[in-house]
Amino acid sequence: MAERETWTTRLGFILAAVGSAVGLGNIWRFPFLAADSGGGAFLVVYLIAILIVGIPALLAEFVIGRRANVDAIGAFREIGKGNWRFIGAVGVLASFWTLSYYSVIGGWVFRYVFGSATGSALAEPEAYFGAVSVGSSSVLTHIVFMAITIGVVAFGIERGIELATKFMVPSIVVLLLGLAAYAFTLPNAAPGYEFLFNPDFGTISSNLAQIIPAATGQALFSLSVGFSVMITYASYLGEDDSLGADGLTIAVTNTFIGILAGMVVLPLLFAGGLSVGAAGGGGPGAVFVAIPIALGDFPSLIGQIIGIVFFFVVLIAALSSAISLLEAPVAYVVDEFGVPRMQATAGIGGSAFVLGIPSAWDTAWLTWFDGLGVALLLPITVLFVVIFVGWILGDDAIDEIKKGMGGDSFGTVWLWSLRTFVLLAVVVVFLLNIHDLFFTVDEGTYIIPPPLQ
Ligand code: PFF
Predict the structure, then answer these.
(1) For residue range 175-192, what is the model confidence (pLDDT) as tens digits?
(2) Among positive and negative, which fits the CA dihedral 61, 160, 328, 149?
(3) CA dist., res. 261 & res. 263, Å (int)
């Protein structure tokens, strides 16, 4: 068999991981979660969750991946703990599951770049979203997005993912900075910033049981933890650079880009005279309806240009995440069964496309897929990753994280954080999610798939 590929540079790995982290989660999922849960209040809990749960868990996935240098399921066998392979399997399932509907939304974004250019997306936003987000039109753009994703992953690590993300991530930053600078000049930008940065602590304390799991789930989703993706990406690391430094760089960049996206989205909404409720009430349609409504109020050429740039940024952010979601199952099939990468990519991408058809057809299904993936599959994987690295790998994990770093203290503090409060936090989130899924009557309907319209 050909030798397994590795990232050509350390920066290549960091950019690919940032590309995975920065995606629809930052721009599509975050605003409507935040709007539902008190804006700035949600941001505060989210940032705390990134710091005390997200980063330690991200490093745990890195440790597994780099130690094994093989796909996320085989990794457990390679480390000598084959009985724990189910963790990698649930993660790979989660990435495949998520890819199916992520590509549907990616397809809408693709459509919106053109809809902004022609102005049709901005003329009657609700009708436009209603037309492109369901039925055959949505299936068609889902195919296009999935095909592009397959096209990148088929070229492998160096010539596919690393090369693509080397262009994508810097473009996201530059274009978002430009949009944020423009948003700053808008007359009503201030209330947008205020909503984002001025937490209402009353909201936090009265909705703790709802905000904590939502913010922690979002923190993990946003860092791409719990999907076997970061295990897979770290498995292509050759040299032993500091995982701690890399993880921190990735998390900080992801958070920075997320906040930057908020500094574009919220001023636009407020400048367009919309309340934040417009971003919250719409569920998956939030940014697709609210942003075009706001842009429709601008002089038409400006509205179109901002629309094109905005949706183009979202498109590359979504693509660089989708390729990581596809890579996790592809690596499994390639490494474990020796299937050529081209075939593996086409087969798995094609199957994820089929699984995504109900979500493309009817947004109720998309919400169901998103709910079940993030509330169930993700916490199961993270829970067991944390137990595994904290309590089963133990000192071996410290050995791995120590490489390229020197000194024991960081590793020891990290390991004990995993063993104690990270584990506790993940258990609490897991239980609250289970409670919501199975026992809350109005929201508990999640567990039952919606009828197909
Ligand atoms: N982190 C991505 C986002 O915030 O949009 C979504 C994602 C990508 C989740 C890859 C999980 C993953 F493995």
Answers:
(1) 999 999 999 998 878 888
(2) positive
(3) 5
pLDDT, mean of residues 345-361? 98
Choose the residue to mutate in 20, 254, 378 for probing ligand 1, maximizing ligand atoms within 8 Å of C-beta: 20
pLDDT at 278 over 60: no
Q: Which residue is associated with the tokens 């040299």?
A: 239
Task: Please tell me the distance between residue 298's alpha carbon and the centre of ligand 1 in angstroms.
Answer: 32
For helices 135-154 and 341-361, the axis angle rounded to 10 degrees is: 160
Angle (CA) 428 433 438, round 5°: 130
Spatial CA neighbour of 397 closest among 383, 382, 413: 413
Report the nearest atom of ligand 1 relative to the CA of 223: 1
Amino acid found at 277: G
Phi, psi for residue 299 in degrees, rounded to 5:
-50, 140
- Token pair 């979202």 is found at 314
Q: Structural domain boundaries of the chain? A: 10-366
Residues flanking ligand 1, CB < 6 Å? 20-21, 23-26, 95, 98, 221-222, 224, 227, 229, 321, 324-325
Q: Which residues contact 317 (CB under 8 A, 6 or more apart)?
A: 19, 22, 23, 24, 26, 27, 168, 172
Q: What share of the chain is helix, strand, coil (3-state, %, to 5)?
A: 80, 0, 20
CATH code linked to domain 10-366: 1.10.4160.10
pLDDT in tens, 111-132: 999 999 999 999 999 999 999 9
Structure tokens at 431: 């239980």
Q: What is the pLDDT of residue 290?
A: 84
The C-alpha atoms of residue 389 and residue 204 are separated, in whole angstroms, by 31
Q: How far is the CA of 191 from the centre of ligand 1 (A)?
A: 29
> Ligand 1 centroid vs 443 CA: distance in angstroms?
24
Cβ proximity of 260 and 340 under 8 Å: no
The residue whose CA is least distant from atom 9 of ligand 1 is 224
Residue 415 pLDDT level (bands cut at 50, 70, 90) = very high
Work out which ligand 1 atom sits closest to the CA atom of 228. Answer: 13
Is the per-residue pLDDT at 133 higher than 70? Answer: yes
- Residue 216 C-alpha to ligand 1 middle, in angstroms? 14
- Which tens digits make up the pLDDT trace of 390-409? 999 999 999 999 998 877 89
Nearest-5° Cα angle at 234, 24 to 372: 40
pLDDT, average across residues 364-390: 92
